[in-house]
Design a protein that fits this description.
Layout lengths: L2 H11 L1 E4 L7 E4 L1 H5 L1 H16 L5 E5 L2 H13 L3 E4 L9 E8 L2 E8 L8 E9 L3 H12 L3 E11 L13 E7 L1
Parallel strand pairs: 3-4, 3-7, 7-8, 8-9
Antiparallel strand pairs: 1-2, 5-6
Length: about 180
């Protein structure tokens, strides 16, 4: 599938909700992508194709919507899926990374022991905005002894400059809004 075609289909499916979850934020709703089996399959296939060029040893999916895209990519590539979760969702020893959002502050956690998974991990999420969530996930990956192989997103909000914060590995976004 041509990149332009998938970009157009994603943009047509997105629904914008101004002032959610806070005034000044325009929330980009991706549920129409998930509601279309064909579009969801094409989005995850395209994400997987981009990530595959970096030869990752596993996929890290960021809670919550990143789980949906990351799980499908990991399954299609037959790679382990690791979760970067919101605080308080994981038992046992955890690595923790806090980060600033465009509308507040949050944190991510990951199990400190990834078992047999080591090496290079691709980080997948739905949206790249300021880059805070993605850089927090990268800190978690490094803290547990792995490296970031790539970042992949369905949508990039280019005006927020998040891509500039992601260094050391390729960044893919299937479409971008300014």
């Amino acid at each position: 599938m041509a990149n332009r075609e998938i970009e157009d289909r994603i943009r047509a499916a997105l629904r914008a909700f101004p002032d959610f979850p806070k005034p000044g934020v325009i929330f980009q709703d991706m549920t129409p992508i998930l509601a279309s089996a064909d579009l969801f399959a094409d989005v995850t296939t395209t994400l997987a194709a981009g990530v595959a060029t970096t030869n990752p040893d596993g996929i890290v999916a960021i809670e919550a919507r990143g789980f949906l895209f990351g799980a499908a990519v990991a399954q299609s590539m037959r790679l382990p899926l690791l979760l970067a979760r919101k605080p308080g969702k994981l038992p046992g020893a955890r690595a923790v990374a806090t980060y600033a959002l465009e509308y507040g502050e949050d944190a991510l956690e990951m199990h400190q022991s990834l078992g047999p998974v080591r090496g290079r991990l691709a980080i997948i999420d739905d949206v790249l905005a300021t880059g805070g969530t993605a850089t927090a996930a990268a800190r978690l990956v490094e803290e547990v002894g792995a490296q970031v192989a790539a970042w992949a997103f369905v949508l990039e909000i280019g005006a927020l400059g998040g891509r500039d914060r992601l260094t050391g590995a390729p960044v893919t976004a299937l479409t971008s809004l300014r």
